[in-house]
Each structure stands twice: as C-alpha cells, then as structure tokens.
C-alpha cells in the first residue's frame, strides 16, 4: 500500500546539535526565514555559456546585493542556467562556483550563505562551501534513489558525510531535498514524503527541503504538516512560495525563494535594462512619441509630482529643484511630443517598476539573465514583440494618460 514503506528506524540516541539551525547563527530565527536564490548565469564550458566569468561574478554580486538590501535572512548560490544538467559537472564548474560564491560572501559577509551545484554534485558543493566560507549546501539524492531529468540519482548520504568529515567541513550544514522536484519517484512509491524525511533525519541531514513537482510549483501544505510532525530537524520549503500562498508555509523553518524574487525583485539596474530593451527592441516603438493630455491635468496635479518630474527630463529653462507648478507650466508650454524611449528612461524608479511588473508577466517564462539574451529571444518571436508593444501603449495611455503619435 502506498505510504506504508519499510519500518521506520530510530536513531541510536539524540541527534547531534548541528541537526538544527542555531540562532543567532545560521539564519537567526527558526520560523519562516527567507533564503533568496542567486541564479548564476550559464558557466564557461556549458552549452548556453555566453558571458565571461568576470561578468557572471559581477551579476551574481549585484543580485546578492539586491537581496541583502531587501532584508533576506540568507542566500543560496545556484548554477541554474547550466542546462542541460549533468550528474558529473566538470572541475571548471566547481572552480567557477567557488570564485562566484567567495565574491558573494564578500558582498554579504553577515548573511547565511549556501550553495547548490546541479545536478546532485553534493561533494563538489561541500568543497565550494568550505573554500568560499559558506554555511550550508542543498543536496539532491541524499536518501532513496529516484529518476531525474539527468538519469538515475542514487542516495549519497553515507559518502557525502564521510567526505565532509574528511575535509574538515562539519560546520557546513546539509539541507537535503526529499521527493525532489523534476523527478519520478515510482521506485519509492511505497515510501511517503514524511518517511523520506525521517530517513534523511536518521542519516544525519541538518534539514530537509520540501518542494512541489517542478520549479515554481508550490509544495503541498498538508505535506509540510506531515513532515514537521515526522522530524525534529528544520524543514525548508524549496519551491513555489509567492505572496499569495506564503501563509501556507509560515510554519516552515525557512523558505527558499527564487522564481518569485527573480521576477519581482530584480535589481534596479536590471529593471533599467528591461526598460531600455522595451524601448529599443521593437520597430513600432522607435517612431512613437507621446505627450500628456490636457484631460489628465487634474490627476497629475493631484498626486503625480514625481511622474511629471520624470517626464520633464530637463527641458530648457527648468531648474532641477523647481516647484511643481513651474514644472507643469514648462511642460505645457513646450508644446511638443517626445520620443517614448526618452520618456521611459527618465521615469522615476516607482514608475519604471510599474512598467517592469506589467512586462514581466509576458517575459517570466523566458530564460534570460541579461538584456542581450532577452533581446535575442524577443526579436525572434513576433508574438512577443506585439504583446510587449501593447504593454507599452497601455502603460502610456492609461498609467501616464498620454497621447500617442507615430512618425511617418
């Protein structure tokens, strides 16, 4: 019968002290700590690699800085873009992840930091964490075998903990995925998720990670309850946490959040890049000009001082610190339409965020790490170009109350 599985074994004595998060050490609190994911660009030697390592490091540090400023409790560095994954990533991947992780540690010296190396490169992750001064790793295939995209992944707990002991890395905690996402678990269909968690605890995992069936898909709240009841070590949620469902997971010890932050909390520089890409990628937009309608003056006067300042962008005779009425008067007396790219690039951050949020709904399923990749993806897809142009037009006419003209 499903869920019955082998008889549950118990550990011979109390669990080691390292089997729990240690406040104020690793994460600082034991309930719903937030761990952001630094999604490293495709590394040198992988099929989709396109950036030099120095740029990859810079991007990772910028992302880490944004997370730090947002107030997360910890970060995990992950080679998400090294598709397709292999169970035996080369030494160049380990070397690159070490340099990147060390740079992130310098950027965030006081945050709890971890690393995951896909796919199931757990010993390599221990080595990287030790060299870079990290606190934990996320391990795949810790207990029980499963079939993943990359092939059969066998349990590794015994070898992994022995390796950790041999290299003197016992201070590095291991958070083990259970019933891992993107995998088939027919081999262990008679072992429930709570029994898998109990086996990981018995085999000295420092915590277990519960996920949905794929990246971005939520874990089942009932499974969280069952696992929390079954083990005494920390339980982390590893996928699918959003603002809408976060209440379902507040009893977890930590929430590993990647996809949601990826689309809603990119650094401002990335939002600026997206604004530039939206402005310069599509031919219909290049000839588009806009001006604020007279009918919008009431709304603008009521509460859009910052917006008007952004639209002005410094026409002749306008002092930077000029009064709102003076800015508005200068705008109206200028009597000219301005190119949309110029308007958007001069918007204040709050308005850029609005546009970004609308555009990202369309782009969120694309796999991109910089504006060059995004541009290439969109330029090859006429449907995406039309949708993004519609987003711009809608934003200009509804949010900015603008009138649009096209050059002949």
UniProtKB/TrEMBL annotation:
InterPro entries: Aldolase_TIM, BtpA, C19orf12, RibuloseP-bd_barrel
Residue span of region Disordered: 1-22
Record-linked Gene3D superfamilies: Aldolase class I (3.20.20.70)
Biased composition (Low complexity): 1-20
Family membership: Belongs to the BtpA family.
Protein name: Uncharacterized protein
